[in-house]
Amino acid sequence: MECPVCDHVDVAGHGLEPNAALTLTITDVKSGQTVLPETRVSTDSSGSFSREFDMDLAKHPTLLANLYEPSGSTLVLAAHANASAPAHCRRDASLPYTGSHAGLSAGAAGGLLAVGVGLLLITRRRSGSPA
Question: Is the pLDDT of residue 129 over 80?
Fold first, then answer.
């Protein structure tokens, strides 16, 4: 599953049973909302399929696809396919920045360390011990 632009998702499968009728669903991972209800997809004679579905990836940036046999009893894919919207897609809400602002703190720590080493050297020279 790929999301090359912000208005649709491309879904493709390969190595499946040839000429099979399958059921595809796509769910928004964050909300759990089904954004593509049960949809029939058919594989070709080589066991492949490719479909494009319109979808607002700003509202649904992380997706989960499931592919089933029509009876719903057998999951065709052993691993679910996950996709994320491209970084350039406008998002409904951005996450807050939680990283540290270490630039100023690191500079102050380095300065204090240098002052400490300097004071240690001065103290040792005054007491007559070799540095």
Answer: no
How far CA 72 is from CA of 16, 58, 76, in Å, comes to: 16, 30, 10
- The more confidently predicted of residues 60 and 39 is 39
Q: CB-based contacts of 5: which residues, under 8 Å, 6+ apart? A: 57, 86
Structure-block tokens of residue 20: 């099979």
Q: How far apart are CA 66 and CA 45, in angstroms?
A: 21
pLDDT tens per residue, range 62-91: 888 888 887 766 665 533 455 555 555 555
CA 24 vs CA 62, 67, 99, 111: distances in Å: 16, 5, 39, 60
What does the block give as tokens for 71? Answer: 């009876």
Mean pLDDT calculated for residue range 36-52? 91
CA distance 131 to 121: 7
Tell me what percent of the chain is helix, strand and coil, each rounded to the nearest 5: 20, 30, 50
